[in-house]
DNA sequence: AACTTGACGAGGG
DNA sequence: CCCCTCGCCAAGT
């Protein structure tokens, strides 16, 4: 065959993006995921940087606002979007943000069940969504 | 082809 | 706990 370089790293390929959107689309309201985690789940040449770039081109129907950085904050202040736009949308879904625009990832971080091995996650054993 | 910027992450002070 | 620096990968110029 002519090509031997079938790279999944083709961010230019819709297939590459769709895989990211597919997971993001499954994120329930009131939950968030980090770029790094998405990259970790997808593996194959997916990195936080690339995922972020793909998310930049997220079409409607994809809750891109539920994807934040590992700091639990939104990085949208670097783009044309309003600085607190994403935070506002998450707050509307029940996500509480700190005065520094940061939320508790250990509480809101969500993982697809097909990636949940043996139940429970490896970072927080019992996410108490009750008030403190 | 090389340099710079960018929806990031982890580590160090 | 907060701020700064380095590293990564890809796109744009």
Helix content: 25-40%
User: Treating each run of at least 4 consecutive H or I residues as one helix, how many helices?
Assistant: 5
Structural class: mainly alpha
Strand content: under 5%
List the helices and strands and how they pair.
Layout: H1 14-25, E1 33-34, H2 35-42, H3 48-56, E2 67-68, H4 85-92, H5 105-108
This protein binds a DNA duplex (13 and 13 nucleotides) through residues 9, 11, 34-36, 39, 45, 47-56, 58, 64, 67-71, 74-79, 81, 86, 100.
What does this structure look like?
With 132 residues, the chain is mainly alpha-helical. The chain has five helices and two strands, in the order αβααβαα. It has a two-stranded parallel ribbon with strand order 1-2. Helix 2 packs across helix 3. The longest helix is centred in the N-terminal third of the chain and has 12 residues. It starts with 13 loop residues before the first helix and ends in a 24-residue tail after the last helix. The N terminus is likely disordered. It binds a DNA duplex (13 and 13 nucleotides) through helix 2, helix 3 and strand 2.
